[in-house]
Amino acid sequence: MLFPTTVFAVFFVFVFLGGWLLIRHRRLWALYMLAASYLFYGWWNWRFLGLIIFCTIINHGFALLLARLPGRASRTGVLATAVAVNLGVLGFFKYYRFFVMSAYALCGQLGLSCSLPLLEIVLPVGISFFTFQAMSYVIDVYREEIPPAESVLDFATYLAFFPQLVAGPIVRASVFLPQIRHPENSGFVDTGRAATLILTGLFKKVVLANLLASRLVDPVFGYPEDYGSVDVLLGVYGYAAQIYCDFSAYSDIAIGVALLLGMRFPDNFNAPYFATSFREFWQRWHISLSSWLRDYLYIPLGGSRGGAWRTRRNLLLTFLLGGLWHGAQWRFVAWGALHGAYLIAERVLTQWLGPRAQPTGRLRARLVRLGATLLVFHGVCLSWFFFRAETFADAWMLIGNLGVWRTPVHLGVGTVVLLAGGFAVQLTDGGRLEPVWHWYNRRSFLLQGLIAAFIITVILGLGPQGVAPFIYFQF
Amino acid sequence: MHDDRQDKPEASPMRKVGAALAVFYVAALLLNAEGLLRNAQRMAYGAPREYAIALSAPVAAFAGRMGVTKLRSGIERLMNETAKEVTE
To 10 degrees, the CA torsion angle through A322, A328, A331, A333? Predict the structure, then answer.
């Protein structure tokens, strides 16, 4: 079930009405949301409901065990088992084929024969997101940062809550679980914020991301041999805007829908292409994943505590695994490696420059900021070649074609407007539209409904026919 | 009794949110009635398609008579013309 569809619109009417009626009965509310979430997930493939139920029961069991065990050694053993089980589930469904194919390739290179069974495994939608949520829950209980959920129902609702189930954001149990039993502002909704998030999300996805994909990005990345420098540059700029619009749209809609159901989630994007450093980029892009990787991988590896070389190793490892999280292909590992290398280079350069890194004078500071923003943006664009291209060969061909002059095909007013829109829409992130929320909240219910209906009609009219799936569904 | 609205002056009561959603659904249904009918006609042959057409056709006819579908059809026409110019 996709957000911008009639089926979802009908589904949401029932979820909202039921949620509203049960808002004072939290156990029933959780049960109703769980049933709705399982329906939402099962709509895609009901057979994988068994997987999510298995993950729920086993992780809640581990959390309860961790809360009762007194000894550090036994607790660590339980945690290691829990992490192994979650990674085992993820590894089997997502990476089995990748590891087998890589083993075959390696054996071929070494002249060895190898016979491993090749299985056709269907990737369950959202598996990367809900296994990461489950792991963070168990680890937080182990660290005694949160108690286990009050019941398996609460944990099941957390893990399967449909707005963020299939493509994030990766919401922490410490954010979600307290809101189930003790909602902050029960019976009241910040409609302005919810409507703004949902409508800007739909605009980003249905209009900008879909048009950028069909009119600019897909032709360039689909037929790399046909395009020269200007088109390739526009194509990768287009992909940078498309993936931002697509993914942040899903997050915005998820956060907005959750808000209508009375749940508050933190922001997942904050104008990432305005970052002046790679470190800042990762504080603005897919915030829930980057903070997950920081808290559950980078810091446990030692973070920046063990000297320069250990910090660099930890950064690189974190981003290699972060790349692999996105997909079972070496292209994603290369994408992660590039970002790890950027962060290492940035640290080395900053340490070397020392106080010289801070420019003096207002104009100079502004120019340095602008230059840094452009540099970071183009570094990110370089990494997008590996993320989007079908193969390494295509990625290298596109990068090579940046130096090949051919008459540009895509350069036109429409392209420029789309690209400008794709980047300008970042100005809606991070609460920058707060005055709009307040304005909307003060309107009557009649005007609120009519404004939203008018905007959605404009969005549907502007967007191409049909609904393309969100990019992050494949992860 | 403590009033939650004092803590969150911008939050609306669920009753108002529900009413706004109801208005939104009715208005969006009428404004996009022809689009919904087109979507239904594009579905694979079978019972779901028949039901979808049976439900959306009278709404589309009613909305068309009221003239409220002109907003979306006007935007779509504009977009198609722009697309044609880009292609040509």
Answer: 30
Q: Among candidates A43, A36, A37, which has minimal Cα distance to A14?
A: A36
Q: What are the domain boundaries of chain B?
A: 13-87
B4 near A CB under 8 A:
yes
Q: What is the ipTM score, two decimals? A: 0.85
- The 8 Å CB, 24+ separation contacts for A451-456 are A452/A195, A452/A199, A452/B20, A452/B24, A452/B28, A453/B23, A453/B24, A453/B27, A453/B28, A453/B31, A454/B27, A454/B31, A454/B71, A455/A199, A455/A203, A456/A199, A456/A202, A456/B24, A456/B28, A456/B32
Q: What is the pLDDT of residue A474?
A: 63
Can you give the pLDDT of all 88 residues of chain B as single tens digits? 344 444 445 788 888 999 999 999 999 999 999 989 998 898 889 988 999 899 999 999 999 998 999 999 999 888 877 766 555 4
**Is A290 within 8 Å of A267 (Cβ atoms)?**
no
Query: pTM (2 decimals)?
Result: 0.89
Instruction: Name every residue whose Cβ is closer than 8 Å to that of residue A56 and which is 6 or more positions away in sequence.
Output: A134, A152, A155, A156, A159, A160
Q: How far is CA A229 from CA A60, A328, A404, A420, in A?
A: 53, 30, 5, 19
What pLDDT is attached to residue A475? 65
Report the distance separating Cα A49 and Cα A42, nearest Å: 6
Q: Exposed, middle or buried: residue A100 (CB in 10 Å: 0-12, 13-18, 19+)?
A: middle
Which residue in the set A185, A445, A457 is minimally distant from B7, CB to CB? A185
Q: A261: which DSSP letter?
A: T
3-class DSSP state of A278 = helix
Judge whether A446 is closer than 8 Å to chain B, CB to CB.
yes
**Helix, strand, or coil (residue A14):** helix
What pLDDT does B3 receive?
A: 43
Q: What is the mean pLDDT of chain A?
A: 90
User: Token pair for residue A197?
Assistant: 């998030």
Give me the residues of chain A with pLDDT under 70, please. 184-185, 410, 466-469, 472-475
Q: Say how far apart CA A308 and CA A359 lie, in whole Å.
A: 25
Q: How far is B57 from chain A (nearest CA, A)?
A: 15
Partners of A188 in the β-ladder: B13
Q: At A179, is the secondary structure helix, strand, or coil?
A: helix
User: Residue B39: closest CA among chain A residues belongs to which residue?
Assistant: A466
Query: For residue B56, what is the nearest residue in chain A, using CA coordinates?
Result: A6
Identify the pLDDT of residue A292: 95
The secondary structure of residue A47, as a DSSP letter, is G
